[in-house]
Amino acid sequence: MKAALKNRDGTFQIANVERPILRDSNFVLARVRVAGICGTDLRHWKVEDPSLECHIVGHELAGEVVEVGPDVFNVAPGDRVVIETVMGDGVCPYCNVQRYNICEHLYDVRTQFVSRAYAEYVAGPSHKFHKLPDQVSFEEAALADTLSVCLHGQHLSGLGINDKVVVIGAGCIGLGQLMLARASGADVMITDIVDSALDLARSLGADRTINTHRDDWQAAVLEWTGGRGADIVFECAGGTAMPMTLPQATKMVRRGGKVVIIGGFDAGETTIPLEWQRIQMSEIQLIPSASFAYHDIYAEQGQVIELIASGKLPVGKLITHRFAIDDINQAFETARAKEKTGAVFVAIEI
């Protein structure tokens, strides 16, 4: 099959590699149709990492089932599916209570199987393949991973109707967080440094948008919330922005409020000074959120597909660019240069 393999320097090369097989009776083989580029992928773009050399990566994907094992009953050849790529070892205490998103072996396992989006085929256990309703396109389904991350963070936040919410970062994650919060009856302010992203946020229902490079964000939040601060702040920028955005989040939130950390950190220790006395004296909760899994008895990715199908999440507005897999390096350049290109979700057609 055709696949985009990581080079040592963090770029990609197109190669022909062995197609995955059905390793067990409950496995499914699917033909990937669309994959996406997320913030984690971008943080590894053009970064030398020998551990990823010659590997297939990517974890936002949808496709069509082509083969199933004898013990597969939830999908059949020809079915359109979204492939969930959060996959633990299945035997640890966390996996046993459907908290596989914090499984100690999460990355070891997922990268062996389902977290291999930039290739023609992917194989994995059948419970990671969710059948798509007819009205959900492959492109929209490829955004389910992003929206599931957002939904997990919202579940942890306890967000309620009429809450005052600030979202930091108007990329795919931040815009997804905005859509979910608005669908739940919250008032939402969103911040970013890219005007095109803020324009899109307004079209998705943001009550207020702030460009933090130009505007007095602290004064704006206080004015918008009657001097109290936000009930909940979602940090959705992550990466190299975190040393700036996490302190911002703790200054935007009210006493007794919550900061939900959605944006990702890189491996290793990260030192970020915070006003710890205010955080403690105000009983501000800092809530880390990692990927997604289940909420009560429901798979969060399955919930997202239902929300997209019902029209409650207009994710099609997030799709700004499309590239063939042969042009994956150009796709990544476009996604990274979002201030110039206006990129939000870049779809790779495979």
TrEMBL record:
Molecular function, one GO term: zinc ion binding
Keywords of the record: Metal-binding, Oxidoreductase, Zinc
InterPro entries listed in its UniProt record: ADH-like_C, ADH-like_N, ADH_Zn_CS, ER, GroES-like_sf, NAD(P)-bd_dom_sf, Zn_alcohol_dh
Pfam families: ADH_N, ADH_zinc_N
SUPFAM superfamilies: GroES-like, NAD(P)-binding Rossmann-fold domains
Coiled-coil ranges from the UniProt annotation: none
Residue stretches making up the Enoyl reductase (ER) domain: 10-346
Cofactor: Zn(2+)
Family: Belongs to the zinc-containing alcohol dehydrogenase family.
Name of the protein this chain belongs to: Alcohol dehydrogenase
